[in-house]
Write a structure and sequence with these properties.
- This protein has about 110 residues and is an all-alpha fold.
- The chain has a domain at about 20-65.
- It is built from one helix and no strands.
- The longest helix has about 30 residues, at about 25-55.
- The radius of gyration is 28 Å and the shape is flat.
- The N and C termini lie far apart (about 85 Å).
């Protein structure tokens, strides 16, 4: 078995071996960390749901996420610089019921 095919983790699922010199392994490290974050997030959500029902310390939650990294999603917006077009618009309107002139009747300067 090649070293690139081996991943060593601790009991909390944290990656222990990392060789950033190899770009393929670096991508695998990022994917592993992403998968681990998803699992931790889902475990916390399940614990938050079940804790009021079963009580503190009376359950153990484990999640194993299968993430397909072969599928990617891309969003793209294209604008033709030769044709003028409104890309975004923001309008702010302020109204005040106070008079325009205000002052103090007993000011000490």
């Amino acid at each position: 078995m090649e070293a690139a095919q081996v991943t060593v983790v601790d009991q909390k699922g944290r990656l222990l071996n990392s060789k950033n010199s190899n770009s393929e392994l670096s991508l695998t490290t990022k994917q592993f960390n992403y998968k681990n974050e998803i699992e931790e997030h889902l475990m916390a959500r399940v614990e938050n749901i079940l804790m009021p029902i079963v009580g503190q310390g009376s359950m153990r939650v484990q999640v194993s996420a299968d993430v397909d990294f072969t599928v990617t999603e891309k969003t793209q917006e294209m604008f033709n610089p030769d044709l003028p077009a409104l890309r975004s618009e923001q309008t702010t309107e302020d109204q005040s019921s106070l008079s325009a002139l205000q002052g103090c009747t007993r000011c000490f300067i």
